[in-house]
Amino acid sequence: MTPNTPFLSQYGPWALVSGAAMGLGAEFARQLAAHGLNLVLVDVQAEALNATSAAISTQSGVETRPVVSDLATPAGLSAVIEAASTLEIGLLVNNAGVSAIGHFLDVSLEKHLKILELNARAPLSLAHTFGAKMRERQRGGIIFVSSGSAMVGTSYVSAYSATKAFNLNLGEALSEELHPYGVDVLSTVVGATDTPGWRAENPNPEAKTWPPVMSAADTVRETLGALGKTPSFFPGAQNRLAMFATSRLMSRPAAVRVIGAEMRKRYQKEK
Q: Which of 172, 205, 248, 261 has the greatest number of CB atoms lying within 10 Å of its CB?
């Protein structure tokens, strides 16, 4: 693919993608490389990250810099910021995230706090650090990867759901604040997406669902197409229909009950 010059001019020369070893993060990296952006790729999984980084560099010819770091820790977050400090980061993709499936009280407090650190503290910190430089340059972009669970409190992934609502609202607010400075901010509210993480957590990944599971390639392509056009976006027409139904056609208590019943059926273990 020939690099997209307007895209590169607005969001280049470097993009930083967190959670880039596989899944959505790796797909963001591949498609951004096709636009001609050099990449800082961040993940805690060293072997997978290095393999993804090398493959993208070989296939696209862009420069890639893998940074093995745990963004859930202050030291890991500082290491990422330091690694990119001399680069002109024109696009930040806050994709790294973690969830824990289970009854809130049956999941350890330590795990809940890790979810909070990685899913909320890290993207806020990265957006503050690199967003300030984008504002100075009067161009750039930030993408927050949110989730359909952000739209209503979702049982059995309660902390994850709460952090994704945080990402959605933070991204929308920053879109308004940074638009006058030429910086585009987007919260992408993704539904079920066929990634290694989704398959590992889903008890029956081959089962047909509605809305249907999207490919990572389609999710990322639609997200990048929406950047600069709207504060938030729902990839997938059927996902948009489902979000409309739960947020507009149902009362909020009804939506909590309906989604909770589905989550209970899908994930609760037999006693």
A: 172
